[in-house]
Fold:
Amino acid sequence: MKNLDDILAMAKNVQDQLSQAQDSLDTIEVDGVSGGGLVKIRATAKGRILGVAIDDSLMQPAEKQMLEDLIAAALNDARAKADAASSAEMSKMTAGIPLPPGFKLPF
Structure:
C-alpha cells in the first residue's frame, strides 16, 4: 500500500504548510484608512488590530458621530485588506496542489 503512504505523507506536508501559512499571517500588516487619512487602523492579515490613529481635528464633541463612522469604515477597510492578504498568502501555499474547483483551505 505504498500509494496510501504517499497520500498520508502528502497530507501531512500540506498540513504543515498550512500551519506555517497561518502563523505567517500574523506577521503581515495592512492599513485600513478612512476620511482621506483622518482615521487609520493597522492590523495583521489574521485580523488582529495593532493600532488606531485619529487625526486631532476629529477630537471634538461635535465630530463624535463622524469619528465613529470613520473608525468603522477604517476597520472595515483593514478587514478587507487583511482578507485579501490572507487569500494571497494561502494561494501561494496551495499553488502546487491539485484541488477541485471551488475547494478552499483550511477545511
Observations:
- The chain has a mean pLDDT of 82.
- The radius of gyration is 20 Å.
- Residues 28-94 form a domain with the Ybab; Chain: A; fold (CATH 3.30.1310.10).
